[in-house]
Design a protein that fits this description.
Layout: E1 5-9, H1 16-30, E2 36-40, H2 43-53, E3 58-62, H3 79-85, E4 89-92, H4 95-100, H5 105-117, E5 121-126, H6 130-134, H7 138-150, H8 155-160, E6 162-165, H9 179-197, H10 199-202, E7 206-210, H11 218-222, E8 229-232, H12 239-246
Parallel strand pairs: 1-2, 1-8, 2-3, 3-4, 4-5, 5-6, 6-7, 7-8
Bound molecules: 2-phosphoglycolic acid.
């Protein structure tokens, strides 16, 4: 049985003092959660969150990184920098990074490989736009994004990758994919992984759903056959609301 992994993506929100207050409120609410709990926070909150989450079941992740260890890349943060500060997870290839910062499948693949090189666990985002969906291309897009992101990884690395299926039209819009739709898309991602790496590997990969997840729809989504938790943006900004998502099964 795969575990459930529920990650918050704060995006460009929360100052350090707000992050600390959040953690103080959130920790007792999720301490008995069965799901694995991750908060992916801005770079400037990482240190504070890591210090304040010590000894709890809350894991801390970054939202992006460069793929090189060092170099003349003004404004970038390297995988080694994240590792040294105590980061455990890193979101890679979020649709906002693909759309606004030109992240291609090739860059995503380099970042995924770099994450493993520095022992960070990648949460790789894939998802179709509304236009692609309406043109009937959902499956083609998400399977090709998955294949290209994982290219060159060992089967063990593929097993340790978390994939977040996030239809772009559902992100921050209040429109959620139906649980059946999201589950089917995730099944097609799993089938693609099985085609390349075999079903034993595919059955172990955690594949989350993301896009307007909230406490009122989390249970229905997470109790389907193939959705192994969620990547949650807006609804992760309030400890009370996010704790209800984490505790969806209680
Ligand atoms: P949302 O964002 O939950 O606000 O739709 C999800 C995401 O972008 O990861």
């Amino acid at each position: 049985m795969r575990r459930k992994v529920i990650a918050g993506n704060w995006k460009m929100n929360m100052l350090p003092n707000e992050a600390i207050e959040y953690l103080q409120a959130f920790e007792p609410m999720v301490k008995n959660a069965e799901a694995e709990v991750i908060l992916c926070v801005p770079y400037t909150d990482l240190f504070y969150c890591i210090m304040n989450a010590q000894g709890t079941n809350i894991k801390i992740g970054a939202q992006n990184m460069h793929y090189s260890e060092t170099g003349a890349y003004t404004g970038e943060v390297s995988p080694k920098m994240l590792k040294v500060v105590g980061v455990e997870y890193v979101i890679i290839g979020h649709s906002e990074r693909r759309a606004y910062y030109g992240e291609t499948d090739e860059i995503v693949n380099k970042k995924v490989k770099a994450a493993f090189e520095y022992e960070l666990k990648p949460i790789v985002c894939v998802g179709e736009s509304l236009e692609q969906r309406e043109a009937g291309k959902t499956e083609e897009i998400i399977t090709s994004q998955t294949r290209l992101a994982l290219e060159g990884l060992t089967p063990e690395q593929v097993k340790a990758t978390i994939i977040a299926y996030e239809p772009i039209w559902a992100i921050g819009t209040g429109k959620t994919a139906t649980s059946e739709d999201a589950n089917n898309s995730i099944k097609s991602i799993r089938a693609e992984i099985a085609k390349i790496y075999g079903s034993e590997v595919a059955e172990e990969v955690i594949i989350q759903y993301g896009g307007s997840v909230k406490s009122s729809n989390a249970k229905e989504l997470f109790e389907t056959s193939d959705i192994d938790g969620g990547l949650v943006g807006g609804a992760s900004l309030k400890p009370d609301e996010f704790s209800k998502i984490v505790n969806y099964n209680k």
